Amino acid sequence: MSQWDEGHTLAGWTGFAIATVGATGSGLGLCTGSALGLWGGLGVVLIGVLTTWALHLTGWGKPPGRRPVDEWGWRVRDLGARDGHPGCLGCRLAGRGRPAGVPARVSGDADRDGTGTGEAVTESAL
């Protein structure tokens, strides 16, 4: 197994299963000319995406990048998910973490006259 085992998680497999059912429903709806089947299948795919995202945010997904061998199992819960994963789009969309390589902003950064306190700015202060 590669050290880059993205998708080998409970969140990934659950989302894949739900999206497969939705894609099958959409395909059948398209082949039979049923708009209800087509849009219903696309709705199920959307539910699969949201389910995967929710499971990822609760720790059943993994951050992108390399991980130690003991974290490769798909039943291993990620305890760091609450703070957000650096470089993870799903975490950023949920308001967690920061993009990779972006340092935390301090209050002095926004002051042009140099009178900032240099204390970290919390999300509620932004």
TrEMBL record:
UniProt-recorded name of the protein: Integral membrane protein
Chain intervals for the UniProt region annotation (Disordered): 98-126
Transmembrane region(s): 12-30, 36-57
Organism: Streptomyces siamensis
Source organism superkingdom: Bacteria
UniProt keyword annotations, A-Z: Membrane, Transmembrane, Transmembrane helix
